[in-house]
Amino acid sequence: MSSHREAPEIAKDPVADSSDLYAFVSPSRPDTVTLIANYVPVQLPSGGPNFFEFGDDVRYEIHVDNDGDGYPDVTYRFEFTTEITNQNSFLYNTGAIESLDSKNWNRRQFYRLTRVADGREHVLATKLPCPPCNVGPLSTPNYQNLVKQATFKLSTGEKVFAGQRADGFFVDLGAVFDLGTLRPFQQLHVAGKKLFKTEGEPVNALDRLNVHSIAIQVPLAKVRRKASRYGYADRASTIGVWTSASRQQVRVLGDRVSADTATGPFVQVSRLGNPLFNEVIVPMSKKDLWNTLPPSEDKRFAGFVERPELAALLPVLYPGVFPNLDALNKAKKPRADLVAILLTGVPAGLIDGFANTTGDTQADMLRLNTAIRPSAKPDRFGVLGGDLAGFPNGRRVTDDVVTIALRAIAGLTVPLVDKTFKPDAAAAAVTPGLDAGDVTAPFLADFPFLGTPYDGFNNPPAKKS
C-alpha cells in the first residue's frame, strides 16, 4: 500500500498511521496548493458502535520545506478533542444527524489548527468541528451537506477540512503481497506459470474502505519562499511536502480514580512523503526507525534507493521478461534515476519543461513545482505520460502511483541519466492493472477532492431478494 500499515509498530497504531499524502496545485485555484494527508486506514464503513476518528492524543502535521534542507519551513498542525453529549448512551447517534450541532449526535470531534513558521506558532482556528462518520441513510441522510458545513475558509486565506473520506488509493494488495504477483502478468510469474494460463483480473483491495483526511488549501505565497520570479526552472518554485504523526513520550495508565495521562515532549511515530517509500524501499529492520526521523536524515537510506530490492526481484519473479534490468542489476550501478525522483528531485535539462529539484540534500518528500499549472487533461501516469503536473511532481488523487513506481523501478526512467540503457519492453507495460475507475466512490472535482465515504448500511451492498 502507499503507506498503510507499512511498518511493524505503526501497524499496531492505526490512528497515527499516515497512509497517503497528496500535494498539487489546485485546478480551480492555481494560486493555491492543496495538501491532503490521510490517516486511520482500512476503515470498515460499518465499524460501529465506536466509529473511527482522529486520536485526541496524536499531533497531526503537514510540513513544507521551501529551501531544500529537509527541515520544515512551514507546518500546519491539527490537534483534536472529543466530546460526548449523552454520558448515559452507548450509541454514536440517537437519530438523524442533519447538522454539526445536532442533538442526536453523541460523539463529536473538534480540532485546533496552528501554523508554525519562522519559529513562531500562530493559531488559525480553534474548535472547528469535524463531520460525523457516514453511518447510513437514516443516521446521515445528507452527508454532502455535513461536509460543506465542516469546510471552512479562514480569514488568513486557507481553506480547511478534517474528517472521514473514501479511500482513493487503488492497489491490488492481495496479489502484490502474494510473492509479488501482478495479475496482468500472472502467467509469466515464476510460480504462477504452474497455476495460471492467462492473465488475471485485478482487484482493488481498498475499494469500499474509508480513511480520515486532513485537507488544507493554502495560498502559494504562504508556502513558497520569497523570490523575484517563479519559473519552472527556478528553485524557489519547488516545495517539498511530507506529513507526520507524533505522540507524547510518556503515557501513564490511570487507576480507578484517575484518568490516563500523557506527558513529555512529542515524539514522531509516523511520516510519509513519496508513496511506497517506506513500504517498498526501506527494509523491514529499519522501517520503524525511518518513521521516527526527519527527511533530512534520509541519506542513511540512500543505498536502498540506489539498489532497490524490488528491482532485483523482478527478473527473478518474471524470468526472461526483464533481461536488460537484470544486466543493470548485475553491473551494480547505483540507480541515479531513482535517487533523483525520490531523494533530490529531477534537475532541469533531463525532461523538457520540467524540474522539481530541491538541491543536494537527500530527503524523501513529495516535490511539487508550483510553477507548472494544472493539466486540462490529466494523465494518470503523470510525468511518465507526458503530464508534467502529475506524480512525481507532487501527487494528485487520481495519479496511478503504483504503476508509475513499478515502471520506474523496472528501468523505464534509467535513460534520464544513462542514454545508453534500453529499458525492457515490459518496463513500459508493467502494471497491477488498476486506475481511478476502480474506486467506487467518485473523486470530487474540487476541495476536498476525495470521494464521499462509504456508509455502513450499504457496504457491502445488500443482496437483492
UniProtKB/TrEMBL annotation:
InterPro entries: DUF4331 (IPR025566). It comes from the Bacteria. This is DUF4331 domain-containing protein.
